[in-house]
Amino acid sequence: MFIYRIRFDLACKFKVEHVDFYVKNYLQRIVATGCFSSYALEMDVNKNTVVISKYCKNMDIYQKYVQSYESDIMQSVDNVIGDALLKSEKTFTKVLLANSNW
Predict the structure, then answer these.
(1) What is the Cα gyration radius of the chain?
(2) pLDDT > 60? residue 35
(3) Do the beta carbons of residue 26 and residue 52 sit within 8 Å?
(4) CA torsion, points 17, 62, 35, 68, in degrees to nearest 10?
(5) Cα 15 to Cα 8, 12, 21, 64, 86, distances in angstroms
(6) Rounded to whole angstroms, how far apart are CA atoms 18 and 26?
(7) Residue 99 forms part of a structural domain
């Protein structure tokens, strides 16, 4: 299992259109790719951050997402959020599942 996490820091206070975009557009497009088994959305309105964690089964699926979908989806972030986006930060983590008997 791999976790692909992206954090968006906004330069301004959240607006309704920002929340609508992440919930109604961005996440719907992520789900539609079929590359991720689940996702989590965290919004901190006090810090103006959005963190989206996406879970995929293996590296091949992640590579498919990067090659086929990521550029277009990230362009949609730029088109909607635009100047409000201060920075984005991506992390990719392999999850090692421990034996539940430990």
Answers:
(1) 15
(2) yes
(3) yes
(4) 70
(5) 14, 8, 10, 32, 15
(6) 10
(7) no
State the residue range of the domain holding 51.
2-94
**Exposure string (b/e) for 29-53, b if CB count within 10 Å is 16 or more?**
ebeebebbeebeeebeeeebbbbbb
102: pLDDT confidence band, cut at 50, 70 and 90?
very low
What is the CB-side half-sphere exposure of residue 14 using CA atoms within 13 A? Answer: 16
Q: How far apart, in Å, do the first and last CA atoms of the chain sit?
A: 20
**For the domain that residue 58 is a member of, what is the CATH number?**
3.30.70.100
Model confidence over 43-99: pLDDT tens digits? Answer: 888 888 889 999 999 999 999 999 999 999 888 888 888 788 888 898 989 888 655
Res 101 pLDDT > 70: no
The number of distinct structural domains making up the chain is 1
* pLDDT score at 99: 58
Residues 78 and 39: their CA atoms lie apart, in Å, by 21
